[in-house]
Specification:
By secondary structure, this protein is α/β, with parallel strands linked by helices. Helices cover 29% and strands 27% of the residues.
């Protein structure tokens, strides 16, 4: 019998229920996976609470995992039973096994272990589009990255350092500051004890940064805009503290003809060729040791509720995986 974590109603971590789930045989264009490790991401909490509705309930949540192909459906020629693959969409990873469209999974290189692959797909490909596409980061770039010691943040610090950027990161403790710096962050700001916008001004001699990467949301807006130089870009790619209320676009003009965007990974990898290119770039940097994926917490999948509590109280650092 296959088990998984489902929600029957939106709510707190207690809404996550470990129970048996039905997994059929793969249809045309599908593969059936046995999960080896499942990634934990903040978007999972949005699905659990209903901030991002998941459709019909009950539903298995979770966005990414690494697994082994156990069966393939009609028309699937790229994969066979025994292949090790990973994915970052669609929802449904919090289960021992699942069905998924073959076009949404990619083969994992032998040198990358399952826990690492499960922890890197959504976060790593997010960093890839943030730094390479949404804003082209290079040696000329000074950037502010909120939650620099989180899963996305630690990958971003390493990747941005490789690209030659100056990275200012916000963190919530001295321990997290040390962790961010160890992964390439140039300077850190403790948002609990410092006014981050004021401190950014001091660190940049009043010039501001080229780009702010903001996954926090309500608690960092509009102060994030005050960190930007004229014509700078604010990238809002998450809302860990709550969604940002509607605002007058005129604020962008008043603060320096700023640019703003609200991207999602799923748009950037909607086409299979883009998914493969993104995964290739990520795997390449990990295999070469340029980007290391810090899996700092593991939980049994059945204890997903506790993992959500720890994530939401900011008790975790780096990446977290759930083991079926």
């Amino acid at each position: 019998m296959v088990h998984g974590i489902r929600i029957h109603a939106y709510g707190g971590p207690e809404a996550l229920k470990w129970e048996s789930v039905e997994v059929g045989q793969p249809g045309a264009g599908q593969v059936r996976l046995r999960h080896l490790a499942v990634g934990l991401n903040y978007i999972d909490t949005y699905h659990r609470t209903g901030l991002y509705p998941v459709g019909d309930l009950p539903a298995v949540i979770g966005m990414e995992a690494c697994g082994e192909v156990v069966a393939v459906g009609e028309g699937v020629g790229e994969f066979k039973a025994g292949d090790r693959v990973a994915y970052a969409n669609p929802i449904g990873s919090y289960a021992e096994e699942r069905l998924i469209a073959a076009e949404r999974v990619v083969k994992v290189p032998d040198a990358i272990e399952a826990k690492t692959a499960a922890a890197m797909m959504l976060q790593g490909m997010t960093v890839r589009y943030l730094l390479n596409v949404t804003h082209k980061v290079g040696p000329q770039t000074t950037m502010l990255f909120h939650a620099a010691a989180g899963g996305v943040g630690l990958i971003a610090c390493q990747w941005a350092k490789h690209l030659g950027a100056r990275i200012i990161g916000t963190v919530g403790s001295d321990e997290k500051a040390a962790l961010a710096k160890a992964h390439g962050c140039s300077e850190t700001i403790n948002y609990r004890t410092e006014d981050f916008a004021k401190r950014v001004g001091e660190l940049t001699d009043g010039q501001g940064v080229d780009v702010v990467y903001d996954s926090i949301g309500k608690d960092t807006f509009p102060a994030s805009l005050d960190c930007l130089k004229p014509l700078g870009l604010w990238v809002s790619f998450g809302n860990a503290s709550g969604p940002i209320a509607p605002f007058d676009l005129g604020i962008l003009a008043k603060k320096g003809s700023l640019f703003a965007t609200r991207p999602t990974l799923f748009t950037y990898v909607a086409k299979r060729e883009d998914l493969l290119a993104s995964a290739h770039d990520l795997f390449d940097l990990v295999e070469r040791g340029i980007v290391k994926i810090p899996v700092n917490q593991t939980y049994p999948l059945r204890e997903a509720a506790q993992a959500h509590r720890d994530l939401e109280t900011r008790a975790t650092t780096g990446s977290t995986v759930l083991i079926p």
